[in-house]
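U., I forgot to send this yesterday:
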Amino acid sequence: MSTEIDYGNLNKRVVFTENDHRHAKLLVRLRYDGLTQSGFFRHLITGYIEGDERIQEFIDSVKTQSLKKKGKSKKLRHQGKQNIQELGLGEQKLIEDLFDLIAEEHPDL
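Result:
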C-alpha cells in the first residue's frame, strides 16, 4: 500500500478513549473482517496520509467546514487528478510506458 521509506523506531503511540460498548462493537467487527486493531488503524492512517480518495471523501463528510469550502476542496482535488492524467503522470500511464519500453527492448517477448 505504501512505498514510503520505513525508518525510525516503532515507539510512537496514538491513543484515545472510547466507551466499553463501542470498543466491544469495534472488536467484533475487526474479528469478523479478520483484522487486528493495530492493522486497522495503520491502514486507515496510511490511506489518510496518502490521500486515498475513499477516505478523503469520508473525512470531507465529517469535518467541520463550510459547504463552500468543502465544494472548493473537492473541485481542486478533481482538477489535480485531471492535470495528472492530462500530463501523463498517472500510475496507469507509467505502467503503460514501462511495458512499451520492454516491448521495444525485447520485441521477441
